[in-house]
Recover the amino acids of this structure.
């Protein structure tokens, strides 16, 4: 099934899920998205649902692509 930008925005990281597993799940869902989304927006969407402690570590880094999150 196809997914929308709104579907991507609702993906949350499970407490027991590693960051790598979360990014892989996000990327798999993104591959079914019919909207064309620039990578910098995908990164913003993906990092929004990370725990504050993890997000806080990334806030001052320039993450250029999704592979840097894993």
């Amino acid at each position: 099934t196809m997914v929308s930008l709104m579907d991507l925005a609702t993906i949350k990281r499970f407490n027991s899920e590693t960051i790598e597993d979360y990014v892989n799940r996000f990327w798999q869902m993104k591959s079914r998205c019919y909207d064309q989304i620039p990578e910098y927006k995908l990164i913003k969407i993906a990092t929004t649902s990370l725990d504050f402690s993890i997000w806080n570590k990334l806030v001052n880094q320039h993450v250029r692509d999704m592979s840097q999150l894993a």
Remarks:
- Residues 19-30 form the longest helix (12 residues).
- The chain has a mean pLDDT of 78.
